[in-house]
Structure to design on (349 residues):
């Protein structure tokens, strides 16, 4: 075995192991917090499996059909994972039915590839899988263009560029003239995957440890994060931003998501959604007491709510009544106060 072959094996093996390990951690953490972490984890695992197939195929050309099918499934899962990661990072909630729709093809590829498909059919599976990734990349770019102003550290752009380079290498492998050229496609893809992993860890977007649900933040951490929350909520009124997510807020105050979530829980005994909704409703109530020219729904939109149903549910949770009932109450109170007029000495106090 030549030196460059040893180097290729080492780099690829480390990149694959690291990617699958980090992917698993982010899936676990995503189930406890931000949904986007789940899709980031699935993306890292899918890309890691596809690179692993290239490495194994180079050293063991007679790899079993099960291994080839697994690599194909990873490729088919990478496209949906990228798109769903971008989509969920903007605050969209992905339903169970959507997950089934997007990941069922990859599952079928693995099952059919392991049992029915012949080895010569797998080239078509891989080629079509590359197109699935390209479609996912294009869809992700469309989402990114609408929300790129919130990508303060350009992490989402890094992920998309990395996937673009990797899919280019995967397509190159399908048309490579010999096994050595195929191997270099694998090494380039491995280096890119390695870069994505380390870039994500450096920006605190890729978790490296399973987050504890019981550990508490110390006083210094709470004070630092609390001061930042006060600044962006009470001075910058960040809660007015529609589709504000934990991820966006964490980026704004340069704090890892899991620390921010814990700080909000410890400082205010609330989850993220309840925390921002209380700020929105407080401002809206203040406006209801002073302004009768606009509809309640228009005011709700201006303070950050994007859905009327979400707004009404949150308002009742905080105030114990509907917005209309609250407006009627404050209006009648104001009329009663105006009828009384200013207090004079002849009036009992």
């Amino acid at each position: 075995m030549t030196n460059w072959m040893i180097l290729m094996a080492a780099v690829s093996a480390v990149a694959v192991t690291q990617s699958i390990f980090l992917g698993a951690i982010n899936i676990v953490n995503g189930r406890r917090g931000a949904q986007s972490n789940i899709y980031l984890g699935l993306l890292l695992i899918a890309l890691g499996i596809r690179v692993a197939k290239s490495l194994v195929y180079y050293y063991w050309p007679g790899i079993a059909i099960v291994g080839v099918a697994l690599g194909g499934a990873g490729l088919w899962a990478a496209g949906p994972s990228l798109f769903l990661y971008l989509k969920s990072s903007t605050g969209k909630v992905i339903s169970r039915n959507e997950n089934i729709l997007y990941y069922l093809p990859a599952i079928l590829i693995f099952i059919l590839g392991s049992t029915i498909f012949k080895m010569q059919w797998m080239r078509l599976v891989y080629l079509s899988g590359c197109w699935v990734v390209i479609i996912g990349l294009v869809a992700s770019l469309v989402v990114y263009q609408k929300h790129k102003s919130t990508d303060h550290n350009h992490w989402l752009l890094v992920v998309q560029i990395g996937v673009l380079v990797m899919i280019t290498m995967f397509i190159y492998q399908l048309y490579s003239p010999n096994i050595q050229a195929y191997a270099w496609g694998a090494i380039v893809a491995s280096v890119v995957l390695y870069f994505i992993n380390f870039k994500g860890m450096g920006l605190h977007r890729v978790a490296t440890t399973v987050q504890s649900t019981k550990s508490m933040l110390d006083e210094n951490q709470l004070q630092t994060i609390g001061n930042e929350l006060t600044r962006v909520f009470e001075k910058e009124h960040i809660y007015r931003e529609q589709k504000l997510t934990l991820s966006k807020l964490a980026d704004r105050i340069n704090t890892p998501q899991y620390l921010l979530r814990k700080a909000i829980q410890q400082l205010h005994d609330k989850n993220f959604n309840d925390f921002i909704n209380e700020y929105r409703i407080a401002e809206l109530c203040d406006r209801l007491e002073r302004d009768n020219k606009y509809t309640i729904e228009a005011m709700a939109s201006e303070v950050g709510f994007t859905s009327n149903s979400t707004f009404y549910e949150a308002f009742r949770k905080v105030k114990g009544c509907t917005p209309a009932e609250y407006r009627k109450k404050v209006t009648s109170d104001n009329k009663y106060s105006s009828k009384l007029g200013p207090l004079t000495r002849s009036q009992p106090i």
